[in-house]
Specification:
The structure holds two protein chains of two kinds.
Chain A (H helix, E strand, L loop, with lengths): L2 E3 L4 E5 L4 E3 L2 E3 L5 E7 L6 E5 L10 E2 L10 E3 L8 E8 L8 E2 L3 E6 L1
Parallel strand pairs in A: 2-11
Antiparallel strand pairs in A: 1-4, 3-8, 5-6, 5-9, 7-8, 9-10, 9-11
Chain B lengths: L2 E5 L2 E4 L5 E8 L5 E8 L3 E10 L2 E4 L6 E6 L2 E6 L8 E8 L8 E2 L3 E5 L1
Parallel strand pairs in B: 2-11
Antiparallel strand pairs in B: 1-3, 3-8, 4-5, 4-9, 5-6, 7-8, 9-10, 9-11
The chains are: A mainly beta, B mainly beta.
């Protein structure tokens, strides 16, 4: 069965510090992986996807198939990065559904 | 452009009463539609999804049901609410051939008293 694990429910860092939100997945094939973000009083929205190899708002995420991980990183956190972050997996070949992790609440302190 | 609506935004219902939450999508046709429950510490739990009118897949056996009477309308229902049904319910849609990006509605906060 597919599973996404985000080991940290809460993560607190200071402004300007590096931040890494961990995500590990369990899946036998080659999944597509995503990070979704929900800012306070806003809708849940896609932040980035591994297939695009893009950097959004300074965040990057690298798929490590050996470690089955897709950690989200930013070298210098900003206060506006405070939000709830969800890692999600879509099984190989497409599927009607995403499998989400339980989320990590990031707080960036001034 | 596409938009997704949910109503009501908040709802307080007594135990044992019925429930009907509605979700509609505009600006697209034949979307995949999803109902999630979001709970603190439990993340996003997929409840139901639909790939077409009248086609409903249930992910979690529970007190809730879903229906899709029209292409862009998705309804979450219950005949008798339980206290444990309290939570934040999110509707989402995705394109029928590109499923990985889902677009979420504003959500409904349900409190069962």
């Amino acid at each position: 069965a597919q599973r996404v694990t985000q080991p940290e429910k809460l993560l607190s860092v200071f402004k300007g510090a590096p931040v890494e939100l961990k995500c590990n997945y369990s899946y036998s094939g080659s999944p597509e992986l995503f990070w979704y973000v929900q800012y306070s009083r806003q809708r849940l929205q896609l932040l980035l996807r591994h297939i695009s190899r893009e950097s959004i708002k300074g965040f990057t995420a690298d798929l490590n198939k050996g470690e089955t991980s897709f950690h989200l990183k930013k070298p210098f956190a900003q206060e506006e990065d405070s939000a709830m972050y969800y890692c999600a997996l879509c099984p190989q070949g497409g599927s009607e559904k995403l499998v989400f992790g339980k989320g990590t609440k990031l707080t960036v302190n001034p | 452009s596409q938009t997704i609506h949910q109503w009501p935004a908040t709802l307080v219902q007594p135990v044992g009463s019925p429930l009907s939450l509605e979700c509609t999508v505009e600006g697209t046709s034949n979307p995949n539609l999803y109902w999630y429950r979001q709970a603190a510490g439990r993340g996003l739990q997929l409840l139901f999804y639909s790939v077409g009118i009248g086609q409903i897949s249930s992910e979690v056996p529970q007190n809730l049901s879903a229906s899709r009477p029209q292409d862009r309308q998705f309804i979450l229902s219950s005949k008798k609410l339980l206290l444990s049904d309290s939570g934040f319910y999110l509707c989402a849609w995705s394109r029928d051939s590109i499923t990985y990006e889902q677009y979420f509605g504003p959500g409904t906060r349900l409190t069962v008293t």
